[in-house]
Amino acid sequence: MSAPNSDYDPVEVTPLHPDEVARVAREALEAVAAATTLADLKQARLDHAGDRSPLALANREIGALPPQARKEAGQRIGQARGEVNRAIAARTEELEAVESAAQLAAEAVDVTLPVDREVVGARHPITTIQELVADIFVAMGWEVAEGPEVEAEWLNFDAMNLGPDHPARTMQDTFWVEPAESAQVLRTHTSPVQARSMLTRTPPIYVVCPGRVYRTDEADATHMPVFHQVEGLAIDEGLSMAHLKGTLDHFAQAVYGDGMTTRFRPSYFPFTEPSAEVDLLCYVCHNDPASVGSCRTCGGEGWIEWGGCGVVNPRVLVACGVDPERYSGFAFGMGLDRTVTSRYDIADLRDLWDGDVRFTEPFGVGL
Amino acid sequence: MKVPVEWLRTLVDLPAEVTTEQLADRLTMYDLKLEEIIGGGISGPLTVGRVLAISPEEQKNGKTINWCRVDVGAQNVASVPDAPGDDVASRGIVCGAHNFAVGDLVVVSLPGTFLPELGFEIGSRKTYGHVSDGMICSTKELGLPDDESSAAGILVLAPGSAEPGDSATELLGLADQTLDLEVNPDRAYALSLRGVARDTALAFDLPFSDPVDAVTLPVGEGGYPVRVEDPEGCPVFTTVVVTGIDPTRTAPDWMVRRITQAGMRSISLTVDVSNYVMLELGQPNHCYDRAKVSGDIVVRRATAGETVTTLDDVKRTLTPEDLVIVDDSGIIGLAGVMGGASTEIGPETTDVVVEAAFWDPVTIFRGERRHKLPSEAAKRYERGVDPALTLAGAARVAQLLAELGGGTVEPGAAHVGTVPASVPVTFPVDLPARVSGVDITPAFAQDVYERNGCIVATDGATFTVTPPTWRFDLNDPNDFVEEALRSAGYDTVPSVLPTPTGGRGLSRNQVLRRRVGHVLAGAGLTEVMTLPFVGAADLDRLGLPADDERRRQVILANPLSAEEPGLTPTLLVGLLRAASLNVSRGHDVVEISEIARVFLAAAEPVGAPIYGVDRRPTDAEIAALDAALPHQPQHVGLVLVGERERSGWDGAGRAVAWSDALAVVRRVTQVLHVEVEVRAAQVAPFHPGRCAEIVLADGTVVGHAGELHPAVAAEHGLPGRVGAAEIDLDVLLAASPEVGPKPAFSSFPVAKEDLAFLVADDVAAEALRSTLAGASELIESVRLFDVYTGGQVPEGQRSLAFSLRLRAPDRTLTDADIKSARDAAVQAASAQHSATLR
């Protein structure tokens, strides 16, 4: 046996010849570049990078080379195959993007078709305005109190300094519950909730009471036997009319924006002393001399009647168990229905109550 | 209170430059709120004219107009050739009315006259073929109060009351203005010119001389004999007698004008004088024909069943609470409310007994309400008339009657009783400043009180203030705060935001209720508000049986409608009414909800106690108040009509089915984290086979959902199947846990098994589902995905197909695990429901 022949000249193998490798590589690249669909490209890949492709076959020939030639030939083939594979990958990406774009284009729809098959709901503006008011006061640190609508006569009237013979009882046309001995009414104001708050809480008390109230008014465009009020009650040490004014000014600004203010006029309510009517600066014309004359919202007055208010009558405090020597308080109340109708130009109060879905729908779930 | 400005100005020396508007504004800020300014505003040549000739001319439209020649004195033009009659200096005027004749005095608005009632300036214009040089005015066009003459049309003046060419504005007092003031019930004194004048003087910082001081008081005993048997009801009673009145006399124009402007009608001299003094001083009074009174005048309570015929010719039956004035003949008046017919002043009356009294306000208030007899006198008495005024009031009436009626005031007066003493009020001198928040000094406050007629004593730290007899509103320290504040000005109150110590935000129920509201809207429901008044017929229409507890309505004593005397026990009445309205207005899809209270009377209602107000009721007493009230929980209700899912280009719609309302209720219970069970139920107004009751874990039925009974739907005019639900929201919210379910899930792989069973029809799907769910710990969830009948399913059975998700918390399930869980499920279904696997 002889020693291995380690220095004989390399055998010439045609497929591994640099020119031949360059040629098949070029053919492969041209085929890849020529592919215009992913299917074409797949064929090109099989033809030029598959197991039976010239480059793959050439690669198999490397073993036939003497060892010292194998490295160079391997590199040559490897580079060529790498180049072809990269070209295929790049071309695949290009063609995929093109085909995907084409498919997406083909899937285009008419986006103006209606998409209204689900029924859309809405919340009543009276509900949402009560929540709006509650939120304003909660943000100031107040709480929201509630109470029954069929109310004890004592809480609706007596505790509010409206004794059985008080002339002011005739001012409120009250629904009475039968029989007379029941001593119950449909509450004429949310004030009994104030009484309940004082009877069950310990000062300091800061509560707002939104809710349904009742008067014996026949329904027409401007009256309803049922409507909504929000009342507020603050009981603390050292409270005065000035705190009432500050609270109402803040309330007005929170609802109607900066620059809003209120004005007091003297008035009379049995449950407050001193008592005042509170007017709201007209939120449309702001009593601006240039526009107030033609303002329909305030009728040219510059101010809108908003509600009643005052310092809680110490007689009310006594009946509700609050020490009038130590504590004082203020209270206010205003209607919510007219706030909504005046803001949204609703001419007929009955629209709030008919239940026509077209009334509520525009409000969505908030004002 | 209507206050003629001309009259007011005679009582307070208001500077001429103060306009009526300025006066009204100031009084409004002084607690005498202006309702409106009446009168004024007429300008231009409004002139008295005499009709000289009338030519009636029939028009094509069938109407006859009058072409008139009118003499307007200095306003005449030299010649009106085409006017009827002789062509003398005059004006030609076309008039459509007919209630005047040649020679009548009328009011003519000549060109250039502005009448506020019409809102434009009269011009000379061509009409019906003539140039009408002005207009003959009606009562209404002149803005005069309605009376007999206004119905007739044209105002025809009394013959000789004026001359052609006179200013009608002046003649009729049309330039006069009247303030209509809203007098709050506590300011009784302002129901008189005296009171308004005093406040005007105070408001404008002017001196005031009380008109009462100008009255010459009778001296000594006299008048008509009086006996008061009920001094509590009648603390003071005064009579003065006037004799020799000329019954043909009428009240002078100035007086008629004032009382007319004040809103009262001129009747006769005696009545007019009586009303005039009530308006002027605030003392209601009554005049009896002395010739018709026999024996002493006595004041006493009525006996039950006694009757009186009042001045309005109504016979009234009295109660022992009524205070009456009697003479030997019987009752001659209902005290403070109305006089009797038997002693009424007549056309022959020459001698008059003038009565002025102070009555107990509460007695008058009750009597007025009992007899439904509101009167100007009662309105004043019930609020409080100055008790010290009777003598001056009666004397003033007598004096005017004598002066204007040619009579004689008999000397002296019968003056019985004592004026109740005013009660002094003590309070700290800084109270006005503390309560109002305005820098009101003690000196300022004291000055205000004294100028209002109070007597003030002070030790520097406190005031002791005795109010004047006419102030019924100054009883408490805070009343004096208001008195000082209205002088300082309500517009001086500063704006200071209080700083509460910090609240706890919305209550849990308030938060949850909002959540429910949003869920309902999110489920496509539109919230409505409905009136809570319903009657038995409404409940009949729901098909509620007679023994249904919802028949126990809270009934109102004074409902607006006899058909709807009670409060609703169910939201479905209102919701179905609203649904009907929507359908009748052409809406195909009506999906509405409401959150509101319903009202259920107790089986044995009890009255609510009435306590005193001098102390807090005890906790037990407060509980008794609540216990008397009817049950009035907040409910949520919903009604679904039409399509739940609308048809569209991408698919057919889906009509409302029995399950839709239940699905909404399920959503609500889910967001509240309340575990509920659903069971079949038969409850009106639901379809007896398509109603689910919603049951809490403790067995409480919280409401119902399903399909409305087809008959009820038809009764309300609602098409198709109608979904409905009503839930007691209060109970549901109470069941909502403070802390909701904790998230707990396994991250091991899921195994899915679908199982279809054949079961008898009467096996509830939910019963089978929950059996499957409980069959093995490895069963994570069970969801029914198919219900099938017919085909190979035997009669009386149905196929229910469920998909089960199996998972273990701690490992990947093996095939054996899955098989054992599946077998357990099949086994349980078979054992408990005789269900066989298909």
From TrEMBL, chain A:
Essential cofactor(s): Mg(2+)
Q: What are the protein's GO molecular function terms?
A: ligase activity
Q: Where in the cell is it found?
A: Cytoplasm
Does the keyword Transmembrane belong to this entry? Answer: no
The Aminoacyl-transfer RNA synthetases class-II family profile domain, residue ranges: 127-362
Amino acids binding Mg(2+): 273
Entry keywords, A to Z? Aminoacyl-tRNA synthetase, ATP-binding, Cytoplasm, Ligase, Magnesium, Metal-binding, Nucleotide-binding, Protein biosynthesis
Query: What is the recorded name of this protein?
Result: Phenylalanine--tRNA ligase alpha subunit
Instruction: Tell me the classification of the organism that encodes this protein.
Output: Bacteria, Bacillati, Actinomycetota, Actinomycetes, Propionibacteriales
Q: What is the gene name?
A: pheS
Automatic annotation (TrEMBL), chain B:
- Domain TRNA-binding: from-to ranges: 40-169
Q: Where is the B5 domain?
A: 420-495
Residue ranges spanning the membrane: these are none
What Gene Ontology terms describe what this protein does at the molecular function level? ligase activity
Q: Give the cofactor note.
A: Binds 2 magnesium ions per tetramer.
Enzyme Commission number(s): 6.1.1.20
Q: Which InterPro entries match?
A: aa-tRNA-synth_II/BPL/LPL, B3/B4_tRNA-bd, DNA-bd_dom_put_sf, Fdx_antiC-bd, Fdx_antiC-bd_sf, NA-bd_OB-fold, Phe-tRNA-ligase_IIc_bsu, Phe-tRNA-ligase_IIc_bsu_bact
Which cofactor does the UniProt annotation name?
Answer: Mg(2+)
Keywords, alphabetical: Aminoacyl-tRNA synthetase, ATP-binding, Cytoplasm, Ligase, Magnesium, Metal-binding, Nucleotide-binding, Protein biosynthesis, RNA-binding, tRNA-binding
- Keyword Secreted part of the UniProt annotation: no
What protein does this entry describe?
Phenylalanine--tRNA ligase beta subunit
Q: Which organism is it from?
A: Aeromicrobium alkaliterrae
The uppermost taxa in this organism's lineage are:
Bacteria, Bacillati, Actinomycetota, Actinomycetes, Propionibacteriales
